[in-house]
Amino acid sequence: MKANSLGLQILWWAEIVVGARALLFFVPVMISKGQIRSVSPYALEDWFMWVAAFASLLYFLIGIVSLLGHNLWRIFHVLAMLIVALLTFGLWNVSTRQQVSLPLFYLLPAAWALFLTAAVYSIKVKTQRA
User: Fold this and answer.
1) Entry pTM
2) Of 46, 29, 23, which is closest to residue 106 (Cα–Cα)?
3) Which residues pair with 127 in a beta bridge?
4) How many other CB atoms are found less than 10 A from the CB of residue 110?
5) What does the pLDDT look like over 60-88, one tens digit per residue?
């Protein structure tokens, strides 16, 4: 029988809490921007908000699934990292089309996803014998 380490449980709770907190910020901001004007997929700020909100939602759901004990939790983290990396590449693509340099803090969702995946793979799962 496998028992997850305390470090993994703390990491998963951190994913849930940080993801929920980020969603509580991004969703009202996106609704407000949508009411003022249409949200454009070609505006760099709007694309960043979509990437960050989607990454927050993704890691929030993965944290819940991991806490519930799904066996593929490591693979889910890798897939989330790849999805966030692709979205960040799209953000970079939008910035190069507009001939604007991408601010470094726009890379935070990708850096966070890379950090979480590295943390998940570095923490060992301890096994208990009955």
Assistant:
1) 0.79
2) 46
3) 2
4) 20
5) 999 999 888 888 888 888 898 899 888 88
Cα–Cα nearest to 88, from 103, 67, 109: 109
What does residue 128 show for φ and ψ, rounded to 5 degrees?
-115, 140
Segment (H or E) for 6: helix 6-36
For the chain, give the percent of residues with pLDDT over 70: 88
DSSP state of 127: B
Written as one string, the DSSP assignment of 44-103 is HHHHHHHHHHHHHHHHHHHHHHHHTT-TTHHHHHHHHHHHHHHHHHHHHHHHHHTT-PPP
How many whole angstroms separate alpha carbon 113 and alpha carbon 82?
Answer: 9
Burial class of residue 108, CB neighbours in 10 A (0-12, 13-18, 19+)? middle
Backbone CA torsion sign across 9, 72, 50, 101: positive
Residue 2's DSSP bridge partners are 127
